[in-house]
Amino acid sequence: MALKVELKPHEKIIIGSCVITNTEQRAKILIEGERIPILREKDILTPATADTPAKLLYLAVQLMYVTQDPQEHHAIYFDLVRDLLIAMPSSAVAIQEINNHILNGDYYKALKESKRLITHESELIALAKEEINGTTSGSLRGAA
Fold first, then answer.
1. What is the pLDDT of residue 133?
2. Domain extents in the chain
3. pTM of the model
4. Residues 6 or more apart from 10 whose CB is under 8 A from it?
């Protein structure tokens, strides 16, 4: 079954190991094939945009997803996991899910779970900022 993708003007997409940039007009493409890594621009992180520990972890998983040899990135990934678990123990469940997907070779699902981890991290950062400003609502208290 083909995947239908509509690209906005100048939008980028990664298909396999290629970065494709659309022209000035919207474009519709059909992609056929099995287990071809595909990432839309909105889901792509770069080293410059991976500015938090969870985003760095996402970037490592992203690199595993698009490369032909995912094991090249395992050492960096596991270093990031260790650091993230120390800094944010509440990430353990999400990291376990990510690890399970990686072990099963399902890097796309690992990416989706990594996005949830980024959301969790953002919530914790917002809570910390509230506490610093003295405006804690208590909604996420104890989440870390």
1. 87
2. 1-44, 45-144
3. 0.84
4. 21, 22, 23, 24
